[in-house]
Amino acid sequence: MPKRILQGTVTSTANKQTVTVQVVRRFKHPVLQKTIKKSKKYRAHDENEQFNVGESVLIRECAPKSKTKRWEVMTETMLEEHNKQRAEAAAEAQKLEEAAHEAEAAH
User: Fold this and answer.
1) Are residues 30 and 55 in the same domain?
2) A cellular component term (GO) from this record (predicted)?
């Protein structure tokens, strides 16, 4: 199962190697059709303590690091790796789609 990635803003750096990230999501209410804004705070692991309050960060799911930490802040190397994997998956999907079109054209 792929790891979820969320984008949020750092709201606290009070603890060592931990940042609190507030993630805001917007959705349309199913009955009222009104746009609603909900927020949730996640505690994420920040190994090098490189992020400060107010910065926008990406966090991804990971194995539990402590009682409350289930997320880790994505560093530059993690982002590069993630983008590389996405590009490879897109290329693979393109090849499969082209093969399906060729097979359909052959019939």
Assistant:
1) yes
2) cytosolic small ribosomal subunit
Same domain, 21 and 39: yes
pTM of the model: 0.78
* Gap between the Cα atoms of 88 and 74, Å rounded: 20
CA dihedral 19, 10, 44, 48 (to 10 degrees): -60
pLDDT single digits (tens) 45-86: 999 999 999 999 999 999 999 999 999 999 888 889 989 999
Domain that holds residue 94: 75-107
Contacts of 81 (CB under 8 A, 6+ apart): none
Kindly state the tokens that stand for 89: 């998956």
- Rounded CA separation 49/57 (Å): 13
Backbone Cα Rg of the chain:
19
